[in-house]
Amino acid sequence: MPNHRSPFQTTHDLPETDPPDLIAEARQQAVTKLLKTIIEPVLNNNIVSLGMVRNLRVVDNYVYLRLYVGKHQHDLKHQIETVLSQLTWCKKSYVQLCTIPGVRTTLAISSGKGGVGKSTTSVNLAIALSLQGAKVGLLDADIYGPNIPQMLGLGHSEVKTIETAEGTRFLPLEAHGIKVMSVGLLAEPDHPLAWRGPVLHKVITQFIQDVEWGDLDYLLIDLPPGTGDAQITIVQESPICGVLLVTTPQQVAIADVRRSIHMFRRVGIPVLGIIENMSYLRCGHCGEPTPIFGSGGGQQLAEELQTPLLGQVPIEARICAAGDSGRPVTLTDPTSFVGQVFLNIASALDKTFCSIHKLADAILC
Ligand SMILES: Nc1ncnc2c1ncn2[C@@H]1O[C@H](COP(=O)(O)OP(=O)(O)OP(=O)(O)O)[C@@H](O)[C@H]1O
């Protein structure tokens, strides 16, 4: 038998007298180091840095972790079990696969504060991805202001359920080719959703897991604004590949986004970039921009936190009107200036994730 002793077996050599928690900590570090050798081939980064590994615990001689992946990445579980089998002290590793059935890539849209245009961005981006040929779902998880249904013309629609082998599941609604589910559709119209603590946690997890999406290339999750319990629960309970932060250019909004970015990084969710909304007003005649909320905030934050500025959306009366009428601008006028901004952002995202789909298709064929 070849000697499979791994260079990561640091805890193996610890003196017998080391307190148990020091041993557990050293073992946890050894596990993390090994997990970082597993590279997700298309995103070309390791599964720890991509935020796929969460809730890692070492208890005695056992490793427990959750693996958050898209439906085409289940093979990573086997790779983890193989790599961890190198650890001589590890009797067994328990890898819990966490995925949203049918969904390949889950992206979250977040903002530091309310009212900056997060839902507007979510619906236009969903339409833009769909126009580029992707199958898209949009989950409105903004418990404080669930207005996606209205923005897509689904005002007071009723949610139906179906019975499946896995139990009762919500059927998403459909608008303009996008599958839609919203916490707002589960509440009485005009009544606030007053969930707190464990109840909030349970409702949100059930809400993420119990929707019958069918096959989706992208699921966009419109998060509640800020960095409270609800956001943290949602990002920790979903296989989110990355988050897009929406901000307006003024300094107070930027400060809140900075806090949000730090929160996402702390819980290990990659930040894919910043979208600056209401960046400027375009002159109706010559297109000259006037930065009425100040300028440069998004760019400054992008440089400071080393994350790309994915796009700048101008203030336009028809963006607001489109939100009220249920027909987003990117749908009604994709060649307009605003439509092009969203299509460019969607195309940049698809450059990163579409190849995943192609690769997965190639593997499945
Ligand atoms: N670029 C824009 N130009 C004009 N109006 C806009 C623009 N972006 C958003 N709005 C309008 O601003 C209002 C708030 O936008 P939206 O609901 O998308 O914000 P939000 O960040 O999701 O808010 P909340 O967090 O409270 O749900 C809406 O009426 C929307 O139509």
From TrEMBL:
A Pfam family this protein belongs to? FeS_assembly_P
> Which SUPFAM superfamilies does the annotation name?
Fe-S cluster assembly (FSCA) domain-like (SSF117916), P-loop containing nucleoside triphosphate hydrolases (SSF52540)
- Keywords of the record: ATP-binding, Hydrolase, Iron, Iron-sulfur, Metal-binding, Nucleotide-binding
Q: Binding positions for ATP?
A: G112, K113, G114, G115, V116, G117, K118, S119
The MIP18 family-like domain covers 29-92
- What InterPro entries does this protein's entry cite? FSCA_dom_sf, MIP18-like, Mrp-like_CS, Mrp/NBP35_ATP-bd, NUBPL-like, P-loop_NTPase, YlxH/NBP35
Q: Can you supply a Gene Ontology BP term from the record? A: iron-sulfur cluster assembly
GO molecular function term, any single one: ATP hydrolysis activity
- Gene3D superfamilies reported in the protein's UniProt record: P-loop containing nucleotide triphosphate hydrolases
Is Zinc-finger a UniProt keyword of this protein?
A: no
Q: Does the keyword ATP-binding apply?
A: yes
In terms of superkingdom, the source organism counts as: Bacteria
Outline the subunit composition.
Answer: Homodimer.
Query: What is the similarity comment for this entry?
Result: In the N-terminal section; belongs to the MIP18 family. Belongs to the Mrp/NBP35 ATP-binding proteins family.
Protein function? Binds and transfers iron-sulfur (Fe-S) clusters to target apoproteins. Can hydrolyze ATP.
Q: What is this protein called?
A: Iron-sulfur cluster carrier protein
> Which organism is the protein's source?
Leptolyngbya boryana NIES-2135
Q: What is the lineage of its organism?
A: Bacteria, Bacillati, Cyanobacteriota, Cyanophyceae, Leptolyngbyales
